[in-house]
Amino acid sequence: xxxxxxxxxxxxxxxxxxxxxxxxxxxxxxxxxxxxxxxxxxxxxxxxxxxxxxxxxxxxxxxxxxxxxxxxxxxxxxxxxxxxxxxxxxxxxxxxxxxxxxxxxxxxxxxxxxxxxxxxxxxxxxxxxxxxxxxxxxxxxxxxxxxxxxxxxxxxxxxxxxxxxxxxxxxxxxxxxxxxxxxxxxxxxxxxxxxxxxxxxxxxxxxxxxxxxxxxxxxxxxxxxxxxxxxxxxxxxxxxxxxxxxxxxxxxxxxxxxxxxxxxxxxxxxxxxxxxxxxxxxxxxxxxxxxxxxxxxxxxxxxxxxxxxxxxxxxxxxxxxxxxxxxxxxxxxxxxxxxxxxx
Length: 343
Ligand SMILES: [Zn+2]
Hints:
By secondary structure, the chain is α+β, with helices and mostly antiparallel strands. The protein has 2 domains: 23-98 and 307-343, no CATH class; 116-306, 2-Layer Sandwich (Alpha-Beta Plaits), CATH 3.30.70. It has 13 helices and 11 strands. It has a 5-stranded antiparallel β-sheet, sandwiched between helices. A 4-stranded antiparallel β-sheet has the order 2-1-10-11, with no helix packed on it. β1 and β2 form a beta hairpin. It is flat and about 65 Å long. Zinc ion binds at residues 69, 72, 98-99, 101, 104, 106-107.
């Protein structure tokens, strides 16, 4: 049972802790040449990346979305905090007017940060409860479809996955999973979409030597049956191994969190395909969890809260003042500072 006490006692390894601070919390606070300019450039870069999306949306008749994205994150409120022991300073995003449009580069970046952190928290906790586990990365595909059939095709994919996940062979080895939908591949032809699933599977430590081990051909057989097709669908399955300085669980998270619709790919679509993608992905769920991960990950929270990234010892940090930045001519500039009353 995962109680709040257990959650608060998660011990991160040093490497993992370093990774969790990937949002550059200890950034230089001010740009010496222009102290009014936001020194951390990530926010401006993501906002500028939206320029072509704004134009494309307007051109294709999505005026509402276009203006939503245009004003996304035009105000940023940061909390400047001091570590009560070390006296280090850090800047953390506290509030912003995010548009939450599915394909907004800024909002997707925030969603990805939260998703990565939530997954890492969950896997760390899982290994503390269950001991060592192994991770598999599974890619399930179907034949390309006309872009007008995107919604139907994703529905079929999800149903097929559900069917496969109920089989004895699947349930005997999979402890939990995280599933992400991707709709366009790197080589997808104009007029077509390539709906496929990227799935991170958690299996027992003994999986590769167990009698329940599933070979590539066995996975293909299972997927073909679940998808109810007469062709042999393309499928990839591989174990996730530690990479460079990362632990296996960190590699696992990076494998799955890096997938989404590529921004350049989306804005590069023909107008007809672009319209189909925007119209047919309304209310579509791109992420889901199953098994042991279902109770550990709050996907709704990730979708909604683009600011708060919890999971560390916040009580060690004290807010000393607030900075309010506005978007002006292609960059963020400081509008004012609010000093926090220390009572
Ligand atoms: Zn946005």
